[in-house]
Amino acid sequence: TWTSSNIIEDQVAAIRAQVGDKQVICGLSGGVDSAVAAALVHKAIGDQLTCIFVDHGLLRAGEAEQVEKDYVAATGIRLKVVEAADQFLGHLAGVTDPEQKRKIIGREFIRTFEAAARELDAERHIEFLVQGTLYPDVVESGGGTGTANIKSHHNVGGLPDDLQFALIEPLRTLFKDEVRALGAELGLPEEMVQRHPFPGPGLAIRIIGAVDRHRLDVLRAADLIAREELTAAGLDRDVWQFPVVLLAEVRSVGVQGDGRTYGHPVVLRPVSSEDAMTADWSRLPYDVIAKISTRITNEVPEVNRVVLDVTSKPPGTIEWE
Ligand code: XMP
C-alpha cells in the first residue's frame, strides 16, 4: 500500500543505486516539485547533490528567502544561488508583449542555469540532473524518458550537447497531492509544500505593461496582502491559484482624504480548478474580498482601485498574459 515513508525508502534505494558515488545537480524554482525532488535525492546521497537557484527577481514577497534560508535550514542542502535580477530586468526593460517576456525569461534562465552548471561541473564533475517531473507531466509529454533537459516550465529546450546529464526523476509516478505528502514527511516548510502553482515567468506576466523594479514592488505588496488574507480566512485549500495582476498602464481617478488620486488598479483573480485546463472564478466570501481591497488601497499608495475577475476559463485564461 502507498505511504509516504514507503515511497521515500524505495526512492532512496533506487537513487543510491543509480548515482553510486557520482555528483548530481538540481535546479530549484521555489515550487513544490523541485523542492521535494531535491530533498529526496539529498536524503539518498547527501552532499553529492548541489542545488542551483536562479533568482530572477520575479518571485513574490518572501519566496527567494524561503528557498535560500528556510529550505536550506530544513534540508541542509548545499545551494548555489545566482542573483540574476539585474540581468533579467535589464533584458525585460520596455518589453510589453507577453510572449516576448516569456521568451526573454526562458532564454536568460537557460543561459544562467547553464553557466552555473558549468562552473560546478568544473569543480566536481557532474553526471546527473534531478528533475521534478510528475506523472501528469510524463503523460502530457508522451511518456518518453531521456537525457538532459531542464524541465520546460519555461517552455524552452535542453542544454547544449557538451553539457549532457543523465536524468534522475524520483517523482515520475506521483501526483501532486502525493508529492505534497512526501514533502511534509521530508520535513519541508509548510508554505513551500502547500504553495499554489506559480508560473515560471513569475510576476513578469502579472504586470500588464513593461516590468520594472518599482512595479514589481507595488505588485508584491498587493499580492502579499491577498495571500495573507486568504490564509487568515483558512481558504488556501479552496483556491487553486490566486493571481494578483497590476494594470500598470491603466490609471483611474480616486479620492483619499482631501485629495484626488490617480493610481493603478489591481485585479484579483482567485480561481478554482482541478488541473488548470479549465477553471472557474472562486466565490470567495465578500468579507474576505472586502478586507483585501481595503488593505491594498490603504497600504499600497500606488493602487487606488481593486477589481475582481469573474471570468471562467475558457474563455479567460487563469493568467492575464
Ligand atoms: P493559463 O493562464 O494558460 O494558465 O490559464 C494555466 C496554468 O499555467 C500557468 N502558466 C505558466 N506556467 N510558464 C509556466 O510555468 C508559463 O509561461 C505559464 N503561463 C501560465 C498558470 O499559472 C496556470 O497554472
UniProtKB/TrEMBL annotation:
<comment type="subunit">
    <text>Homodimer.</text>
</comment>
<dbReference type="GO" id="GO:0005829">
    <property type="term" value="C:cytosol"/>
</dbReference>
<keyword id="KW-0547">Nucleotide-binding</keyword>
<comment type="pathway">
    <text>Purine metabolism; GMP biosynthesis; GMP from XMP (L-Gln route): step 1/1.</text>
</comment>
<dbReference type="GO" id="GO:0005524">
    <property type="term" value="F:ATP binding"/>
</dbReference>
<feature type="binding site">
    <location>
        <begin position="29"/>
        <end position="35"/>
    </location>
    <ligand>
        <name>ATP</name>
    </ligand>
</feature>
<keyword id="KW-0067">ATP-binding</keyword>
<keyword id="KW-0436">Ligase</keyword>
<feature type="domain" description="GMPS ATP-PPase">
    <location>
        <begin position="2"/>
        <end position="195"/>
    </location>
</feature>
<keyword id="KW-0658">Purine biosynthesis</keyword>
<protein>
    <recommendedName>
        <fullName>GMP synthase [glutamine-hydrolyzing]</fullName>
        <ecNumber>6.3.5.2</ecNumber>
    </recommendedName>
</protein>
<keyword id="KW-0315">Glutamine amidotransferase</keyword>
<comment type="function">
    <text>Catalyzes the synthesis of GMP from XMP.</text>
</comment>
<dbReference type="GO" id="GO:0003921">
    <property type="term" value="F:GMP synthase activity"/>
</dbReference>
<keyword id="KW-0332">GMP biosynthesis</keyword>
